[in-house]
Prior knowledge:
By secondary structure, this protein is mainly beta. The protein has a domain at 1-10 and 50-77. 9% of the residues lie in helices and 20% in strands. The protein has one helix at residues 65-72; strands at residues 6-12, 40-46, 60-63. The protein has a 3-stranded antiparallel sheet. The longest helix has 8 residues, at 65-72. 13% of the residues are buried.
Amino acid sequence: xxxxxxxxxxxxxxxxxxxxxxxxxxxxxxxxxxxxxxxxxxxxxxxxxxxxxxxxxxxxxxxxxxxxxxxxxxxxxxxxxxxxxxxxx
Length: 89
């Protein structure tokens, strides 16, 4: 599947009420991914930018697919699996 037209917007969770779920690929607040600390989330859409995006005060983006993959791979979005040796050191 091609994601060339897909865009992503990261914002603080307290602004979730501003999302029009009929304009994004997520269906509700229950389908959103959260940052490790639970303070941020994001939505994605294909094509033109939904009008509600301009209502966000804490938004970052929009990002393209490659950019969001890099961001989501970071420690803010992905918990470390810890020490795989099991020794704790």
